[in-house]
Each structure stands twice: as C-alpha cells, then as structure tokens.
TrEMBL record:
Keywords: Calcium, Lipoprotein, Metal-binding, Myristate, Repeat. Belongs to the recoverin family. GO terms for molecular function: calcium ion binding. This is EF-hand domain-containing protein. It comes from Malurus cyaneus samueli. Residues 79-114, 150-185 form the EF-hand domain. Pfam families: EF-hand_5 (PF13202), EF-hand_8 (PF13833). Gene3D superfamilies: EF-hand (1.10.238.10). The lineage of its organism: Eukaryota, Metazoa, Chordata, Craniata, Vertebrata.
Length: 233
C-alpha cells in the first residue's frame, strides 16, 4: 500500500548489527544472512542458548573434523533442505563440499550473544586450542573472521600485542587480560589495519537513515536477484 520495498530482517537482526560488544559487525558481514537462516531452519530464539551449548559440546568431541552436507544435517538433527544447503554454503569457502563445524558454532554464538564478545572468544578458544590450551595466529584469524562474518582479516598486530613474550601462541587468559586492559582492542588493532582492505571492515561509516538502525538494505534492486553469496565473497 505504501509502495516501499520490504525486508525480512527482524528487530533481532538490528540488535545483532548494533550490539555493543568489543567486536562490531562490518557492513559486509554474512552473519545477518546467517541469522535469517537460523530462524528459517526452525531454531527458536528462546532456546538458542541451549542449542548452542549442545552444538558446542558436540563440536568439541568432533575436534578438527570437517563435515559434508549430509554429516552437517545429522549434526544439527535437521533434514537436508534448501535452507540447510544455503547455511552450509556460507561456510564452504573453498567450495570443496566440506566445512569446519567450529565456524558454525562461533557464528551461532555471535547470533545468540551479540554483545558478549569475550564469551564467544572463550568458546572459540576451547574449540581451537591445543592440548596445552594455546592457539596460534592462524587460529585467531579463523576465530575473528568467523565472529565478524568476513572473508579475511589481518590479526598480526593484535596477536603480537597479546603475545608479549613472543611465544608464537597464546592462551585465553592471555587474551582476556589483554582485552581487560584494552577494551577497544578491535578499533585499535583490527579495524585500523583493515580500512581500505578487501575485507571491507567499515564500521564507522555505516549510515543510520532513521537515526536508530544501520542501513543494511541492498544498494540497488538488482542486488536482490544475486544468488546467495558465500562468506568468501
């Protein structure tokens, strides 16, 4: 009746986009798309934290195993459907038909607790850490790019800052202590390095046309016809 376009984003998506955690979602994040797929799959907001605990515990038992679509379906206990295939595609960056289940758990944690950055990072450490409780710079890059829903991210400066003793590996306690001393670590060590890079981490330039919510609408009507973009894109 108003002659205006519609969107299937929800108020929860707006909360996700504007969450006041240490990590702010960039404008090109795939996590808003992921959140829509989570709802379409039938996972309900009121039970999401319980679902997260269940999936995280299962992922820890699987360790570093990669899964195909059929195994992903069994892991989630949902039948294969177009929605499940779209969700799988978000994490199948190499298009080789397998995904790292840990990335799904991290993304679900962000959607479930968007403002509790350190809780998500602590969970991610548990998923990625070695037997000695440490992770490498490559692990941290995997964790943060998944938590922000981008295709790539440079964590070199952040990792060096946390790894004061230059061991080449860090624990969650190291990261937590650093985050307590530098609550704006993302702005200081991540966003500044990425501005102008291909990852497109543009958090400060997001427009808020109505003064409240960031504008995540497509640039043009033609964008709606594009196929589902993977995180790599």
């Amino acid at each position: 009746a108003l002659g205006v376009s519609v969107t299937d984003y929800t108020f929860e998506d707006c909360q996700l986009a504007l969450a006041e955690g240490q990590l702010r979602l960039p404008s090109d994040t795939c996590l808003l798309e992921f959140a829509k797929l989570v709802r379409s799959l039938g996972l309900k907001p009121e039970t999401l934290e319980d679902d997260l605990d269940k999936y995280a515990a299962s992922a820890m038992k699987m360790k570093k195993e990669k899964v195909d679509l059929k195994e992903f379906s069994a892991y989630l206990e949902f039948p294969v459907s177009s929605t499940l295939e779209s969700m799988f595609a978000l994490f199948d960056e190499n298009e080789d038909g397998v995904i790292d289940i840990r990335e799904f758990v991290i993304a679900l944690s962000v959607v479930c607790k968007p403002s509790k950055t350190l809780e998500t990072i602590q969970l991610a450490f548990q998923l990625y850490q070695s037997e000695s409780g440490t992770i490498t710079k490559e692990d941290l890059a995997h964790i943060l790019k998944t938590a922000m829903g981008v295709s790539q991210i440079d964590v070199t400066h952040l990792f060096r800052a946390v790894d004061e003793e230059e061991k080449g590996k860090i624990t969650y306690d190291d990261f937590y202590t650093f985050a307590e001393l530098h609550p704006h670590f993302a702005e200081d060590y991540l966003y500044a390095d990425q501005m102008g890079a291909e990852s497109g981490l543009e958090t400060s330039a997001l427009s808020a046309p109505n003064g409240i919510c960031t504008d995540f609408s497509p640039d043009s009507a033609g964008d709606r016809k594009k196929p589902l973009q993977k995180k790599l894109n």
